[in-house]
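User: Could you go from structure to sequence for me? I need the amino acid at each position, not a summary. Structure tokens:
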């Protein structure tokens, strides 16, 4: 399994993209960095080019992007406009591909949250239609869109992994799949057995300690169970730590060592 870190969570107010931790992330031994697409898509062309070059100099790739849509682009409700969303996505995915990303996380609660009073079934169908339109765009750019279920404190639609899997199956496009987020799964009190139901649909993973959404600090049975289910479906792709910290270098070093230990065959008993 490859391990990365979501740069946008490290110092969100001062550095919402995570550019200032690119070099540190590489130095700490992470395999890649995950950066937020929405602010990247808004960067002036020269600034984006400089970011690409900075990643190259650091020797680390942005293999995944999160934060797909900005809240200003409505995806559900009466103000949703599919052509506007697709036009944004076409340009944004071109930038993601230029970064070398092959995974694009679709959580985007601000954009997809359903307005009060709007029918939930209609909003659901809006998301299905959107993702069906985005599948071919993703394929052209060599990217898989991974649906991220978000807990009910953050979003009012697609909260559980089972719902995310249902959405994947309704969209029926190989470029639209599912991600598993340990934090959201735990907050929603959802059984990790859903990983076995999802199987090959799982294309990306996020991880954080559920209490405080911080970097994991010590072994927990719940961690072992989560990763053991991933092992059962032969998941060997990426796991990004998406967590808060006040000491990135210390917390990230410890967390990376911990997760590598949990997932290393022969070092930790799988339950």
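Assistant: Here is the amino acid at each position, in order:
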């Amino acid at each position: 399994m490859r391990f990365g870190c979501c740069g946008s969570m490290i110092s969100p107010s001062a550095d919402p993209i995570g550019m200032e931790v690119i070099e540190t992330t590489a130095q700490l031994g992470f395999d890649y960095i995950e950066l937020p697409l929405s602010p990247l898509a808004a960067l002036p062309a020269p600034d984006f080019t400089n970011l690409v070059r900075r990643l190259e100099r650091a020797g680390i790739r942005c293999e995944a992007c999160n934060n797909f849509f900005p809240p200003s682009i409505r995806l559900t409700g009466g103000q949703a406009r599919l052509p506007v969303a697709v036009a944004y996505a076409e340009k944004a995915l071109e930038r993601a591909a230029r970064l070398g990303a092959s995974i694009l996380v679709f959580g985007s609660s601000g954009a997809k949250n359903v307005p009060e009073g709007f029918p939930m079934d209609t909003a659901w169908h809006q998301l299905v239609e959107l993702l069906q339109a985005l599948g071919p765009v993703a394929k052209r750019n060599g990217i898989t869109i991974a649906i991220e279920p978000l807990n009910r404190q953050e979003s009012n639609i697609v909260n559980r992994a089972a719902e995310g899997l249902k959405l994947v199956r309704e969209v029926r496009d190989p470029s639209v799949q599912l991600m598993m987020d340990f934090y959201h799964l735990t907050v929603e009190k959802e059984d990790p057995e859903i990983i076995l139901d999802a199987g090959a649909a799982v294309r990306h993973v996020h991880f954080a300690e559920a209490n405080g959404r911080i970097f994991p600090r010590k072994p927990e049975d719940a961690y072992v169970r989560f990763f053991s289910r991933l092992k059962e479906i032969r998941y060997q792709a990426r796991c990004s730590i998406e967590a808060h910290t006040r000491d990135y270098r210390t917390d990230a070093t410890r967390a990376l060592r911990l997760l590598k230990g949990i997932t290393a065959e022969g070092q930790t008993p799988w339950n």
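One structural detail worth keeping in mind: The chain is about 45% helix and 15% strand.
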